[in-house]
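Re: [help] complex structure
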Amino acid sequence: MFSSLFETTFSLNDLWFMLKGAGVTLALTGWAVLGGTLLGVAFGVVRAVAPWWVNAPLGAVLDVFRSIPLLIQLVLANSFKTIVGIHWSPFTVGCVVLALYMSAYCTEIVRSGFLAVPATTRRAARSLGLSYRQDLTEIVFPIALRVALPSWIGLTLGVMKDTAMVWWIGVVELLRSSQVIVTRIQEPLFVLSIAGLIYFLMSFPIARLGARLEKRWREND
Amino acid sequence: MNYTFHWLPAFRALPEMLAGALVTLEIAVLSMLLGVFFAVLLAVASGSSYRSLRALAATWVELARNTPSLFQIYMAYFGLGSLGIHLDSFVALLAGITFNNAGYLAETFRGGLRAVPQTQVRAARSLGMGQVQAFRLIVLPQMFRIVFYPLTNQMVWAILMTSLGVIVGLNNDLTGVTQELNVRSFRTFEYFALAAVIYYLLAKLVTVSARLMAWRLFRY
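Output below.
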């Protein structure tokens, strides 16, 4: 049973192939986080300050992305792309869907961060002569950032893990590349363990950092 | 755009898909019940004075939180196979989601446990309650109130995660049924759009009934 762990046919080339898969995972994550954060900040601020007739429909639309499995979103986007005749690679489709998916969660994080700034603090800032813009950049932004950053780190890691689903539409990322090797050398436990280890190493240090930030910032409050 | 939508076959398959939705709900509920059970054990273990128990709990929690849920389901389906444990896709999916749920909920429960002041336990004990009694009657109800909202969130997550069953070959849950219909007809968009609507309704069903329950339970 365990002998297969020591007499493995897993080669350095296979490891290199998996690391390349991990690179694709990171690239997907990077684009998705970039797009998702930009959209999320924009939507989040709009949701925090806009009147209800803007706020409610925007919230409802974004809620759809959080209530449908990512896998289904990916399949839908991929087939919609074919229907309309856009020629995007599966990688691009994956990035776009993941970015929208992330933006839906990021919006709520930004919004709750924004609303966590007490109204009295903002009024004080305005009565000290700060302009509305200065109030946003000098008062709201630093306070909201502290509230939102730990959740944002968690979300980023969540998106990183969710990129694993993108192989369903044909992107060879880390999990898919390990699957390719499994079909060849037939040692699923060993190969999957390596994949899991790589995911863990990509996620765990950052998760720890997020937890530490959260703790440290709470002490200062 | 030279594509004609054919919605009729999709609507005709609605009963099949709703039967699939029932299986989806069944897996999600089961995985939540098992997940809560293991999560309570993990939360208690992580506060225990035995080092090995703490290490076990920490390993479970960190593995569950730092690897993709799809990976965990893969591990249950393909990985355990090489140890001679062959799970069918239903059980593998259930095991994977339960593992994930327990890992996330353990952290939630630990926070909930810490939020109940130790003085209350001491007060309960000095009123003559046993340790188990104090935990069951004093700590648990208060903790439940704190973890209720994260619990419903996790339930929605569990429903969304069941869609991954199709990747390990499950064919009777909502995504599985949809995929079977899809490979028969290649009307991908129509079928999956309908599935998306059903998933949306399932998620809403959970959040709305949770809100009603919270309103009924936490009125005091």
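The radius of gyration of chain A is 21 Å.
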